[in-house]
């Protein structure tokens, strides 16, 4: 780089350090030196030769009224717009003007921030011992719970952690809707979970599963085992090889066993018992064939469930595989 190019880059960087209100825009630095000065004043009270504390001073640079909007640097891959240094907001706004159809990283991050603000309000109500979510807040949350808009939140780590914190405050129908979104899109979520953040959803979703009726449980299991692009066998294989997916499947089966052994009236819909029996056989066959991921939690009544439907030899094989 030539000396002129270096000078131009330094000048652009120094422009961004100028401030008409440094105490507001650089509060921590100004407050830090204010405290140092106050401390030195107390220590040197009565001493004339008061020392000045060392302080970083930003060189003053006169802002040019006229400047070249675009500067071309020889050998570079593109052109740098100087106007963005003076008007960064203009560049940010321009992003929204050229957005394509579908959710982007910007829109997802914006949605996560809005949802996080709602969560902070809810947690503040919890601190004030207000357990019931106001209807206005509930409506705002339901707008985020529609499948098309809600799914991108589960594609990022911050969104998963946010939903995990939010679930305990939701009403049963809203929490049930989130569970359905997760189970319907489980193969996609597992394939995109590069940071392995899905397990953070397991504890609150397990609490939601514990409130399901038998018919609701069957509906969730059907969503878990079906996909537009995958067969039931492929869905089960992917689920069993993923730590979160296998744990979620175990939680659903365990809750079904609790409902069946409780003796309480189940009020099933037509065909629910047939679907449940077929599901148990399909899951048992998959568990005995493929390599399993290590689950987050192995329910104690899982083998009891398989003993209800399978022969002793198959149950023994499953027991060895689960352990």
TrEMBL record:
GO BP terms in the entry: deadenylation-dependent decapping of nuclear-transcribed mRNA; P-body assembly
Listed GO CC annotations: P-body
MF GO annotations: RNA binding
InterPro entries attached to this UniProt entry: Pat1-like
The organism's place on the tree of life at top rank: Eukaryota
UniProt-listed PANTHER family: PROTEIN PAT1 HOMOLOG 2, TOPOISOMERASE II-ASSOCIATED PROTEIN PAT1
UniProt name for this protein: PAT1 homolog 2
Organism from which the protein derives: Salarias fasciatus
